[in-house]
Amino acid sequence: MRKQLDLFGKNGDTSAEAAGGAWRFPLIAKPRRGTGSQDIRIISTAEELAEFRQSHNATPDQEVQWVIEPYHQGPLYSAECYTDGKSFYFFGITNRIMSQPPEFVEVVKTFPHAHGTPWEDSAREWTHSVLEALGYNAGFAHVEFIQTREGFELVELNARMAGALITPAVAACTNYDPYAMVIDEALGADVEVPGHRQVRGGHSHVSLYAHRLGKLKRVEGAEGLNAFPGQPTWHPAKTLGSQIEQLGTYRARIGNVSAVAPTPELAQDRAIAAAQSLSVVIE
User: Fold this and answer.
1) Distances from the Cα of 73 to the Cα of 28, 46, 128, angstroms
2) Same-domain pairing of 85 and 146
3) Residue 69: pLDDT band by 50, 70, 90 thresholds?
């Protein structure tokens, strides 16, 4: 995919050995088949890269199990869209507040971020150009990217509806109905999509994570969420009694608190405030 984007000049400096074979640090290493920010490593020097290769038996010929690429610095976003290769439908941008490196878990997501702005226009055009360069026609696309000092840089392209509570946010905040669209696809019917987007509010959700290993005993404070504005709602991701066996990855996620508002910014304020009233008890 990155080689194809390189041909169209859409990939920036994302070659792991750009500029005549010289590594440009920092780099990031992640399992090729990994998910949920598991086993992510930041590599800052040539010495650390040599140590990583040695400890993981990852010579240049054997790095098929790992992706090593530039560590782009800047805020992370995702573009939510749909294209069949002929028509392109842009739902909006989801922003992210991330945990502090070297952990890379998503703490807050808000949709539709910066809608109706020149910045969103540029992000939409860039996303469309990336999908066109790839000849993408698989329908739903969840395109994650980072805005660096030099511009947008692709992180990954997922050929699916957006995860977490992003797709419910699209359905709640716009006149697009992703669920009806995917049913049309499954039935082989023409996918009915409005020609123009209408935004009708904002949606945000905050993820709560375990900070110690053990068994999930309870989540305190959920009964008091109705005291906050924005219709805050608790969405558990684990059942009581679940064993927490990892920290710093999506597997440590206990659940999400969502909130709505007339604007995405207000929804984010409300979701954060409501989420701070909850506490996770691990034994």
Assistant:
1) 11, 19, 22
2) yes
3) confident
